[in-house]
Amino acid sequence: MSNTTYIGYQFKVSPLQPAVDILIAELGYAGFESFVETDEGVTAYIQKEEWHEAILDDIQILKSDEFKISYTFEEIEQTNWNAEWEKNFNPIIVDNVCSVRAPFHEKPDTQYDIIIEPKMSFGTGHHETTHMMIQHILNNDFKDKSVLDMGCGTGVLAILAELKGAKPIDAVDYDNWCYLNSLENVVRNDCDHITVIEGDASVLSNKSYDIIIANINRNILLQDMATYVSCLNPNGMLLLSGFYNEDIPVIQKECETHLLKFEEKLERNNWVSLKFLN
Question: Is residue 57 a contact partner of residue 30, using CB atoms and an 8 Å limit?
Answer without folding.
Answer: no
